[in-house]
Write a structure and sequence with these properties.
Shape: globular
Length: 152
C-alpha cells in the first residue's frame, strides 16, 4: 500500500498573506520616512501607505471580524449569545471600521493637512471611508458574475 503523508503547514505558510502585506506596508513607511514628500517618489510612498494599510485591514479584519450579510466577511458561526453580544459580533467589522475611522478623522482634523504626515492621514481617512462603504454596499447589493456577490 502507498504511504499517505500528511504535510503539516507551519505558521509562516498559514499567515503568509498577512505577513507579506504587513511587510510591504512597513517598507512603504520606511521609504516615506526618508523621502521628500514634495518629490514624486515621496508622494508615491505616502499614497502607498494608505493603500497598503487598506490591504492589511481588509486581510486581517475580514479574518477575525464579521459583518452579517456582507460577502466580504466569512460566514458567521452559530451562536447562543445574548442579543446585544450577538449584534456586536454580527457587526464587529463595521463597528471596528467606524471607530477606527472616527479616530483617523479626529487625527486628521488636529493635523496640518499640508504637512508630510497630514497628507498620509488624509489618505487614510479616504481609505477607511472606502473600505467601510464597500462593506456596507456588499451587505445589500450584488454584482452579476462576481464570486463575491454569490447567491443568498
Amino acid at each position: 500500500m502507498a504511504e499517505v503523508r500528511i504535510h503539516k503547514r507551519g505558521f509562516l505558510h498559514e499567515h503568509s498573506l498577512s505577513i507579506a502585506a504587513v511587510a510591504i506596508l512597513l517598507l512603504w513607511f520606511c521609504l516615506y520616512i526618508v523621502s521628500n514628500p514634495g518629490k514624486h517618489a515621496g508622494s508615491f510612498f505616502g499614497n502607498a501607505i494608505a493603500d497598503w494599510s487598506g490591504v492589511v485591514v481588509t486581510v486581517l479584519a475580514t479574518k477575525y471580524l464579521y459583518e452579517r450579510n456582507s460577502s466580504e466577511s466569512r460566514p458567521l458561526p452559530k451562536s447562543i449569545l445574548k442579543p446585544t453580544l450577538e449584534f456586536l459580533r454580527d457587526h464587529s467589522l463595521s463597528i471596528f471600521l467606524l471607530i477606527t475611522g472616527i479616530g483617523w478623522v479626529i487625527l486628521y482634523i488636529e493635523m496640518d493637512s499640508n504637512s508630510k504626515w497630514g497628507q498620509v492621514v488624509g489618505n487614510e481617512v479616504s481609505q477607511w471611508t472606502q473600505i467601510f462603504g464597500l462593506v456596507v454596499l456588499t451587505k445589500h447589493m450584488i454584482e452579476k458574475h462576481s464570486k463575491e456577490s454569490g447567491r443568498r
